[in-house]
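Fill in residues.
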């Protein structure tokens, strides 16, 4: 088992209610945030120079990384969050436990509207999303609070 799988499994165990001390839980979330910071370093941002990284934890403990990837045709740019989700979905993973997102911002980075919709599409409403910056400020928010009233399959009467 590689370190990412081991770390992911520990976080999943914590989030699934194992009897583990809160301090250990904080350390594991810090590791997920660290992985998002590492993903940020891979960003392709020749135009904005604004690097964003994401680390997406699956229910089985796997971590998918994403960075933002810009294009001269700006509308073709893909955000870090969506990169991580699209990698996971394309590999067959569709059940997620936590997401960490990081950028060099004053406060914790805020996902764009498109990313919020993708997060709401694939994650449970009560899943934690950890928004942070390089200074170490962290905001924990649920998917429900990230995009209240998200458009979903229920709106399509399905």
């Amino acid at each position: 088992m590689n370190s990412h799988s081991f770390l992911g499994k520990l976080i999943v165990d914590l989030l699934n209610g194992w009897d583990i001390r809160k301090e250990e839980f904080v350390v594991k979330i810090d590791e997920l945030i660290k992985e998002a910071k590492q993903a940020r370093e891979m960003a392709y941002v020749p135009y904005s120079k604004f690097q964003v990284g994401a680390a997406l934890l699956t229910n089985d403990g796997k971590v998918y990384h994403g960075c933002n990837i810009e294009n001269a045709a700006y509308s073709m740019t893909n955000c870090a969050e969506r990169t991580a989700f699209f990698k996971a979905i394309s590999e067959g993973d569709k059940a997620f436990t936590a997401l960490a997102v990081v950028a060099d911002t004053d406060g914790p980075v805020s996902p764009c509207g498109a990313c919020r919709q993708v997060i709401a599409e694939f994650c449970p409403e009560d899943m934690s999303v950890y928004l942070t910056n390089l200074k170490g400020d962290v905001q924990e928010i649920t998917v429900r609070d990230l995009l209240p009233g998200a458009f979903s399959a229920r709106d399509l009467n399905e």
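The chain has one domain: 3-156.
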